[in-house]
C-alpha cells in the first residue's frame, strides 16, 4: 500500500546503520533460561525479578479465576467492569503499601499518565528528574501544569527548581525510585526533606523497586522508612509482581478523584479476572516467601561482582539492574548479538531509551538464576567482551 514511503526510508536508514531491532519472540515461559529460535539462552533481559511469572501459586490463581469469572470483564471499571476482586485486591494492596488507598490501572505507564494528567492544573508546576521514565515524560506532556526539569538526582538543581517556583499553587516533584536504565536508587530521604522544606508534593515511580526493595518488596519509600511522607507512589504489577498492571498508592481522596478524572482509568477496560487474581496471589507470595527477594539480592551481588572483575563499565547501579555500558550504539547491539551466540539473551539499549553515546547492554538477574547459570553468563560476557575489545 502506498502512503508511508517516508517511514520506509527512515527504517531503511536504521537498517543501514545497524540500529533496526526486530521483535524477538520467546518460545518458552519466562524462566532463568528461555528458548529463542529453538535455542536455550540464559535470560538476562526480563523484569521478572522474583520469577513470579511462572510461580505455581500465581498460575493456579489465574486459571481458577478465568474458570470461575471468565476470560474478560467486558467493560471499563466505572460502567460495568468492576468485579469484587478488583476492589478487594486494591484494599489488600493498600494494606501492603501502608497507604490509605490504592487504585489499579492497566499498566504502570497509564498509571503515571492518569496521575500527571489529572491531578494538576495550569496554576501548578511539575518538577521532574531529567532521567525519569518515558511514561512520566509523556504524562507531563499531557498536563496543563508548567514543567521544570532538574538534573539527574542533583539535589542542588532540585532546590533551585523549588526556589524558582514558589508562586505556583502546588508543586509536584516526581522521581523514579529506581532508574530503569542505570539501576541507581533516587536519594529519596533528601528529596523528601527538600519537598517538606518547600512545601511541595512528592511522587515516586517505584516500577523497579516494587517487589525488590523495602520490607517484602514494598518499595523505596519503605526501604528508606519514609512511609507517610510521600504523597503518591506509583507501582507496577508487571515486573517483580510478575503479571500486568500499574497502581497508585495514596490517599482515599486521590483514589476517588482518579476514578472520576483519570482518563486511562475511565476509558479503558478493566483487568481480566486472571490478571487480578494472579496479582493478588503475588502479594501473598511477597509476604509469605521473603526468601525469593533474598535470592534475588544474592544473585545480584554475585553477578555484579563478576562483571566488574572482568573489567566492564557497570555504571553506578545499586539494584539488580546492571548496565554494561559500551558507548557506541552499533557496538552495544554487536555485544548483544555475540552474547546470544554464546548462550545469553541480554538486549542492547540505545538512544532514545538512553542518551546518545551511552548505549549499553542492560542485564537484570532474577531469583530464578543460580551461581552455575550466572557463571555461564559471565563466561559468555568475557568471550564476547574480549572479541569486541570492550574489556
Ligand atoms: N515506570 C518505570 C520506571 C518503568 O521502568 C516502567 C516499565 N518500563 C513503567 C513505569 C511502566 O510500567 P508498565 O510496564 O507496567 O507499564
Provide a compact summary of the structure.
Catalyzes the decarboxylative condensation of pimeloyl-[acyl-carrier protein] and L-alanine to produce 8-amino-7-oxononanoate (AON), [acyl-carrier protein], and carbon dioxide. This protein has helices at 5-17, 56-69, 77-81, 84-97, 108-118, 134-142, 155-163, 188-197, 220-223, 252-261, 263-266, 273-288, 291-310, 329-341, 371-387; strands at residues 33-36, 39-43, 101-105, 125-129, 146-150, 171-176, 201-205, 232-236, 246-250, 321-327, 344-345, 348-349, 359-364.
Describe the 3D structure.
With 391 residues, the chain is an alpha/beta fold. The protein has two domains: 15-44 and 290-387, Aspartate Aminotransferase, domain 1 (Alpha-Beta Complex), CATH 3.90.1150; 57-288, Aspartate Aminotransferase, domain 2, CATH 3.40.640.10. Helix content is 43%, strand content 16%. It has 15 helices and 13 strands. It has a seven-stranded mixed beta sheet, with helices on both faces. α7 packs parallel to α8 and α13 packs parallel to α15 (371-387). The radius of gyration is 21 Å and the shape is globular. The mean pLDDT is 96. The structure holds 4'-deoxy-4'-aminopyridoxal-5'-phosphate. 4'-deoxy-4'-aminopyridoxal-5'-phosphate is lined by residues 107-109, 112, 133, 135, 176, 180, 205, 207-208, 236, 238, 246.
